[in-house]
Every structure is written in C-alpha cells, then in structure tokens.
Amino acid sequence: MDDRARYDAYVADLAALPTPVLLRAKDTSRLQGFIAGALRVLTLGGQDRYASEYVTTLGHTIWVPADWDRWPHRARYKVLRHERVHVAQFERLGWVGMVLVYGFLPLPAGLAWGRAVLEWEAYAETLRVEFELDGWAAAADRRLHDGIVRRFTGPDYGWMWPFEGWVRRRIARELDTFSRAAPQP
Ligand SMILES: [Zn+2]
To answer: Considering the entire predicted model, what is its pTM?
Structure first.
C-alpha cells in the first residue's frame, strides 16, 4: 500500500470510530495557543515548538501543527499510530484520570512517573510502526532511540523522567519482542 493511501485509510478509520477521532490544527484554537505559551514559560523556553512541531492528543481530538499537510504521509501515519495509543488512554482513564496521571503524578515535572508510563506505552507503538513499515534497521536505529530518550529526559515533555537507563531498557525489551517474532540475521 502506498504511503498516501495508508494515511488516508487510517484517518478515515479514526473518524469512523464509535466516538470519532478528528484531526484539528493547533493554530485554529485559542486554547492550544494558550497551552503553547504556558509551556514555553514553564520550561523556560525549553519547549518552544509545541505549536509548530508537536502533535498532541486531548480526548478524541488530535491537534496537529499548521504545516501538517506538508509532512510526508509516511511520517504522519507513524505519528498517528503513536497518538492513537493516547486516545485509548483517554478512553481508559477519562479526562480527570489523564490530567492527574499525565500531568501531576507524582510531580508535574522532573519526576512525572505517570506521564513517563503513558508516553512509554505510546513510544512502544512508535517502535512497532517503525519495525512494521521500515524493518529492523529502522526500529533498531540508535538515532531513533536517542531521540526517544531525549523526549523523556529533556524539556520537550517537561523533563518527565531523568532515568535514561529506564527508557533504554524498555526500548531493548521491545526490540527483543520483534526479534523473537522475526529472528534477525
Ligand atoms: Zn505521546
């Protein structure tokens, strides 16, 4: 299946769910603009790409940057697979649960265990979709892993989890499940 067809089919699938999941541009929402500004301030400028580069799921809305339509279809599909995990988390925990676990457990920054666990669940899906579409080399790519580690330990998600080893062990464990399913040379 080509990249565009795969992406279009996935967006259509999301919209056809019992509670439709819809994509909206962040720059059409004042609340999203407010969140972007708040994050810039709270992270002392460390997260200043929330509106321009980041995709964010809140409930059944997947908020995308203004230039989303110019992203390659393959990259967009991969991101949506990650975000769908967050949709399922919202369905499981509800808004109040998500705000508490994602935002405040036990701390909003520095030691955000709840956010780290929820994000890890979604990044495991990121590794799976890499493996599915681009094979072992893509899923095992050190640069991809370093990028994921930075997300956890750096300002992107408010320094959610300082333990690099925790992230790397989970990445290794996930890769292990791929190699057991399809042994690598
Ligand atoms: Zn995520």
So the answer is: 0.91
